[in-house]
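Sample A.
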Amino acid sequence: MRAPFRLIGGVLVATLLTQITACGSIFYPDRRGQIDGKIDPAIAALDAVGLLFYIIPGLIAFAVDFATGAIYFEPGRTAQVAPEKLKEAIGVDGKVDNHKLQTILETELGRSFPLDDPRLIQHKGSAQQLAMFGLQPAA
């Protein structure tokens, strides 16, 4: 009878230790040492899963990630695409083809963007911005 209790105790200790170490510190050790920034929602959600199982380890996971700074996005990471490559996504009528733009962004940045999402907010550019990129405004 002692063996099952030891097995259950070992599994419980292993589970608690994995929750205490915090997800951001495990997945992104290079982010440690940051003071502030934009919070990574994926890491915050994974830390919140710890709250569902055990309150104390979940709170400790959040505390460790905030204290080490591993919950924040890396500072200064930006993604840029040359304007010449983006010209391919603009049609002859001056409108942007979202499908072409999405394929350009996927090939250049290696990430997919949901440009067909109805919640996407599109802003119109000015004639000066178009002229800066060598484009003619269409009325």
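Sample B, a different protein:
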Amino acid sequence: MSQANDTFRQLEKASPGTRQPLDRLLDDMTWNEQGLMPAIAQQHDSGEVLMMAWMNRASLEETLETGRVCYWSRSRNRPWRKGESSGQQQQLIEARLDCDGDTLLLLVDQLGAACHTGRRHCFYTRLTREQGEVISAPLVDPETLYGASQ
């Protein structure tokens, strides 16, 4: 059994209050081939799921240190501090790691829209067996947030 598997197996049986050093967890977490991990952002007080993005170790460490959520932008190939161009920031309330060490849950306080479409969240298309249906309107015009280049 690998050290990573051992770390997360131990946590499965751990009592509340059990602690592990952050560096050990970061070392043992399962990052993909690009060194990334999915991070789900959820509004801390309402439970609303806002978005999914990617984090690398450095962006997670920055988020934990500063309290301002920083993701890894795959399209720009650089850190993406949520709200750096739109002003629609996310403040970290709590970060959680799933049981396998391969997905993050970020409980955040979202300022305004989380989605680049100007909507509160990215999950605005409901799927059924027959169709997809848009179920929420933008809070703000994306051109207002990002300019006409978006």
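Observation for Sample B: Residues 3-12 form the longest helix (10 residues).
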